[in-house]
Amino acid sequence: MDYIGMLRGDHDLSDLLCDVCDIEVFPEDKTPEDEGGHLAYNIPGKTFAGAGCGSEYILLEDGSIGFWGSEGECGRIADSLKEFFELMVNCPGWRDYLEEEAYQDQESLAAFAEEIYEEHLEDMEDMDFYLPAAQRELADRLGIEIRDDVAEILMRFYDCAKREPRFISTYTENDGSTHSGTGSLFDR
């Protein structure tokens, strides 16, 4: 399924994605952030979307999805666009799920994920926005399944974030010295 094309062609769907997941799909792909020529990546790709904070989602040449955060974090988050949207729709606020110790077993992960989701619901109580209904509509329109237990989706996310080769950014200072990340969003 051409998720990006679908979102680019349907502004209501794109707005819903932004409301639920804080993801803005760009009208066209662009070159990933390079901070004035100082930032380079070990795997080429094209930025297809961004977050409100300035972070970018990058479709890498191997078909996986990389993330570059406005605070310098960088790593792979999904092995395909389908897995990317499954993660985003089922786990909005996905960065809140980056506590590595919760990924020790499925039971612990399921309990952790439920706790995070409940926190998201509490945070939205005073808003005129009902997250479960918005998620369901987004999932239906994208052809993605909403899961009661997201542990399997989160384990795929974790495995993707840890697999080799990692998606790594390297910043080169004016004096030529370089700083590289670990390539995993879990290694903060």
Report on this model:
By secondary structure, the chain is of the alpha+beta class. 37% of the residues lie in helices and 20% in strands. It is built from six helices and eight strands, in the order ααββββββααααββ. The chain has helices at 3-9, 11-21, 81-90, 106-123, 131-142, 151-162, and strands at residues 24-30, 39-41, 45-50, 56-60, 65-68, 74-78, 169-172, 178-180. A five-stranded antiparallel beta sheet has the order 1-3-4-5-6. A three-stranded antiparallel beta sheet has the order 2-7-8, with no helix packed on it. The model has no long low-confidence stretch (mean pLDDT 94).
- Tally the helices: 6
Order of helices and strands: HHEEEEEEHHHHEE
Distance between the termini: 33 Å
Question: What spatial order of strands do you see in the largest sheet?
Answer: 1-3-4-5-6
The percent range for helix content is 25-40%
Structural class: alpha+beta
Average pLDDT score:
94
The largest sheet, given as strand count, sense and whether it forms a barrel, is:
5 strands, antiparallel
Strand share of the residues? 15-25%
The count of strands amounts to 8
Low-confidence stretches: none
Radius of gyration: 17 Å
Question: Which word captures the global form?
Answer: globular
